[in-house]
Write a structure and sequence with these properties.
Layout lengths: L4 E3 L6 E2 L1 E4 L3 H14 L3 E6 L15 H17 L13 E4 L6 E6 L11 H18 L12 E9 L6 E12 L4 E15 L8 H4 L2 E4 L2 E9 L19 H4 L3 H19 L3 E3 L6 E4 L11 E7 L6 H15 L3 E4 L7 E6 L8 E6 L13 E7 L9 E3 L5 E3 L11 H8 L2 H4 L4 E7 L5 E3 L7 E3 L6 H12 L6 H11 L3 H10 L3 E2 L1 H21 L5 E2 L8 E9 L7 E10 L2 E8 L2 H7 L17 E6 L4 E6 L8 E3 L3 H7 L36 E5 L5 E5 L17 E7 L7 H4 L3 H7 L17 H11 L1
Parallel strand pairs: 14-15, 14-18, 18-21, 22-23
Antiparallel strand pairs: 1-13, 2-31, 3-9, 3-12, 4-6, 5-6, 7-8, 8-9, 9-11, 10-11, 13-32, 16-17, 19-20, 23-24, 25-28, 26-27, 26-29, 27-28, 29-30, 30-34, 32-33, 33-34
Length: 765
Amino acid sequence: MKDKMIKELSDISRTNQLKITETSEEVAEKLYQYLFKMDKGIESFSADKLDLSEYEGSSLNFFQKRHRAIKKEIKKILSIYDKNYDCKDIQYFLSYSKHGNMVFFLSPNKTHSGWKQLFVNNQERILNLAFKFFILSQSIETIKGSEELLLLHSIRPSKSKDTLIVWGQSLFIKYNYHNVLTLTLTRKNLCFSPRDQYNTFDGDNLGDLLVYEKKNYYFDRPYDGRSRNYINFMQFDKEDKNFEKFKKTQLYYYQNFTSKLENFLNECGISFDTLDFQADHFLKNPFISNIESIESLEVINNVGVDLTEFDQKFLKNFLLHQSEVCSLTFYNSGKTISTYERVEVDDEDSPYWKIKEVVDWSSIELDRTKNYLVLNKLLEEETGSRAYQGSDGLWYPSTKLDSQKKIDFYSQLKKRFNYLNTGEFFSMQGLDIIEFRAIGDENSLLSVLNYTTRKIDRDILQVDTQIFTDGKSLDIESSILCYLREQTDCKEWKKFCDTYKLKVSPQFQKVLIELSIKNWIKHSIVNSSFGLAIPPQTFSDKKFFAIYVRSPLKKEAQAVAVEFLYKEGFIYITNVMRDMKQIEDKFQFLRRRKNKSQTLIDAQQYFVDESDNIYINCYTDDLFTPILIGRKGILEEMEKGSLKINRKIKDDSSSRLLPLVTYYNIRIQPIKRIQNMICLDLNNESFIQYFVPPAQGLDEKIKRGFRVYHLIGKTYSKESVLTSELIQHPITSLHFTTLTQNILKISDNSQSSLLQKVARVLIEN
């Protein structure tokens, strides 16, 4: 592996992480001194014996009842200092630990120091409480009175004008056992009601107050913050002047509040290191790209509208010329198997749908020898086609379907033909679209092919397409579509696409790659001699396992262990284990929840080398792995006007807002070369950090495209494998030479290896 890497430093990228370099006792003392100086102290009480009986019979849920009970108890304690203490000024955090649940709250009793002895087991919540006080003292716009630190993003009246729809970001500092602080932001979508409509118990004492146009509003209920993404991770205009849009993005907030966290620690006198990311090596062209073609495919149309004869003809040509799909068939002759009718509701809620089964969903059977592309109706941006049917017969978009009896067609299909349940692998891939659209311009969403309007001369296009348009004067899209639908010569078809810069949309590229992977899995599971060619390795034969664990809350854990063989430049699947007890007995290093030792932790991914008795964990996690948030000085330079606000990179002096590692350094020319590199940081003694630049431009909503990954090795006796040994291990080499650089889920920038994907697909397909 080492001989394939190029030693070269990247530019430094800032992250959302800091590392405290002092002991817990020292940190507690300095927090105490800071709060003392600010005439504040911290007091606490046990939350396990709160009396919630007075709220019986109310419509409040358990968490709302507890919130009121906590604030009532705090007010009772604070009344010693001020009988008229306003509940909206109460600041607290509820801390969960094995020693019991504790409530820590700010108090005028600045001499109280008993909480310092509790700091070791409650350091995360106590630090957040002190940081929240620091933020609120700076007059930053937040919602008063809630436990979390909720930063306001936007406020707007609902269509009915009776309530307010509030978007915000919950800011929380994770504090792990390596003394690393990770600043995290979570999107929130909340409903606030005016005070005269607030009829819940103890409304005045809730104190979650918002003042809008000189009127008081109280928190009523949460909406699903995932349903509509009103807060982008990043957004850069082509116009340099539009700083205000950028200031509404999470990337801005990460930059801003990481700086404020540094200022807070400095003001407390707490020593820390900034955990910037700098790669010291890179790999060139490691990505796997020669997966077998799909050959045959069946399309199941579930978008609500029948595919026309012209649609089907275009798809046959497109898939034949683009992906060598020689046999394309259409289930039910391309007619939709469901119809959809949207039920209009207030804009703060997700839409409801009436869905009718044109073809009985349960009657649809799949053939294990085929590959299936399911075109699904996009119901909601982030939930896609996923939905459940409520008791009223309407369908509600949702990602939480585990406990629902009636779920959407594609979710049902995956559940019925799941590998763990059937022992057979069915190759299918869903694509969520609003409607089928063959051709679209650069601004169109979810078309198969895209073109750039300014690059097309309409007169020349008319001449080039007249053989299939009968000389008619058509618009750009119709002319292109006529040609591509009728042209059967592969060379001419591709020449036309090159001439007019027609690009396969990212959504369809992802689908084609995923189907290729699943087609290979389908063949390999039934035929262990069906290998996949990968770049040749310097070592001889190697057997190893890839393990994936899925353990949803309140559901039984599931796992697969896929045995691979590398031999003479090929990867083979030789065995698949899916029995949970067998997997747990064989791989006893699998991690379990602290409070439920019988339950496995969710989303574990491992490579296992039984001959060397080591396992390698590849992961990304908010508690440990950082997000790249740009470079130092961005906000200061923007405020001064010395930094342009756009994403264009022209020369060394141009603005570079995104993490600098995405350009590596000025010596890497052209800049697009970074798309074919993996950036490695080998400085840490016991783990490898790496960053995989995306092959295409990142969507403004995809945060995971800025995630740094960790690779860490341990022996069966739980001793760390040194980075110098880990980078030389055959499995590490196989991991880095089978990355696919594509997207497994539309919302995630998937940078996992093909080996990891096989295990994951067998559970989640």
